[in-house]
Amino acid sequence: MSDITGIGTAAAAVKDLVGMFFPDKTEQEKQQIAFTLAVIQTQTDTNKEEAKNPSVFVSGWRPFIGWVCGAACAWNWIGLKIALFIAAYFGHALNMQPADLSEMMPVLLGMLGLGGLRTVEKLNGAAAVTHK
């Protein structure tokens, strides 16, 4: 049945106009989640292809960065404390400061997948792990 009065068409136009200024939050959130998942899937596919490459310059950069970040964390939280303790024990004052990890931690967390992936999983209903 067609809209003889044109009211349906006018109502749809008003709805579209209102939607431009006041977008539906749930639809907007769904689009954002879908975009985030697409980006994650694309990165995962890229990671898989890089890992298959026999060249260390293609497949080796990620482990290298992981080891560098891991070594920096180990130095900050373990090595520095031991070095300061040993120096103090032998009567030497070391003025050593921890490394600034403010730029390195986002890289490490991103590589570990902790930069928001778990939030996306929770939003998609994968929050609970069941064991049988």
DSSP helix count? 6
Computed Rg: 26 Å
Please, what is the average pLDDT? 76
What is the 3D shape?
Answer: elongated
Give the ordered list of helices and strands. HHHHHH
Helix content: 55-70%
Q: Which sheet architecture does the biggest sheet show?
A: none
Class by helix and strand content? mainly alpha
How many beta-strand elements? 0
- Give the low-confidence spans: none
Tell me the fraction of residues in β-strands, as a range.
Answer: under 5%
Please indicate the count of domains: 1
Distance between the termini: 54 Å
Describe the secondary-structure layout.
Layout lengths: L6 H15 L3 H28 L3 H4 L1 H29 L14 H9 L4 H7 L9
Helix pairs in contact: 4-5
Description:
The protein is mainly alpha-helical and 132 residues long. It is elongated. The N and C termini lie far apart (54 Å). The mean pLDDT is 76.
Short description:
This protein has 132 residues and is an all-alpha fold. The protein has one domain (24-123).
Key structural traits:
132 residues, mainly alpha
